[in-house]
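Input.
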Amino acid sequence: MDEIRADEIRADEIRGKAEGSATVPLSVLDLVTVGQGRTATQALRTSVDIARLAERRGFHRYWVAEHHSMPGVASSSPAVILAHLAAHTERIRLGSGGVMLPNHAPLVIAEQFGTLEAMAPGRIDLGLGRAPGTDGATAAALRRTDRLGEGADDFPQQLAELTRFLDDDFPDGHPYARIHAVPGPVQATAEGGVQSAARPPIWLLGSSGFSARLAGVLGLPFAFAHHFSAQNTVPALDLYRESFRPSAVLDAPYALIGVSALAADDEREARRQVLSGALSMVRLRTGRPGLVPTPEEAEAHAFSPMEREFVDSWLVNIVHGTADEVRTGLDDLAKRTGADELMITANAHGGEARLRSYELIADAYGLPTA
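Output.
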């Protein structure tokens, strides 16, 4: 495995700063959810509103996640969404949580995120996952092959190739030595070049131990999907820390976890909102993906015993309630896992509930108001 270079990447581009009374930095993960009776256009406008709110209130970073063939999730093109968000924000870090690398040629990702870095210098994160972000048939359509296991198995090699493109440092004699990802460092070394050689820091994402170990061995920051794999959180973080080797990027481990959390003005409203997301997950897990149902539909739904069991197990890992209850739950989770950063995803039917949730959480921690 090639060593990961980090030209002009500073640890402070990775490590966040806790604001207000929060014990760790708080960030946002956006799935760009689309509810029944809503459009993708409205969902994307909500993403801009949440990103602006997150920037104003002192959240550290804002990531979007690659998903495909899911009517209720409009985030199939993270690079496009991030470009849009970059045009509507000024300071907050923006990134992918993540791009599913086996779905793409590494050169394409290097070009996309080099472009984003040129648009918003010093604000872009490149989070990478090895899962398809969809079902097998859709993954086969994306990758033009039904040999899906090969993509996941080749992830370390794909990562090394992507890093070489980002750093523009293939060795002499390599087939790609004369290929350059543009925008990128080659523009800094070309005659008369004044382009910064900086490139986005790479994060590895995971919901099991594979990427945890790989991130540790390479000395990269790690993001774990606690929001849908809570039972594996502590073992994966332990594995990451045990495997960690200092690198040019980090001298010590840095791990964030994605957390489902939704605050409302009262407990009942919070329960109504998260129940709609739970019903949406029931349908997704049973092969019936659709738009996120309304809270009214979720309340009226006659859950089967099997569905009820799933919903109960799903909701236990969503921190929800009043702002104070959510703050307590987030603090307990940070303490229990030792996470260095919490990335909050608020899944609900409507954008209003999501915006209100982030505002309430910011208030609960006394985050900045300007």
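The chain has 14 helices and nine strands.
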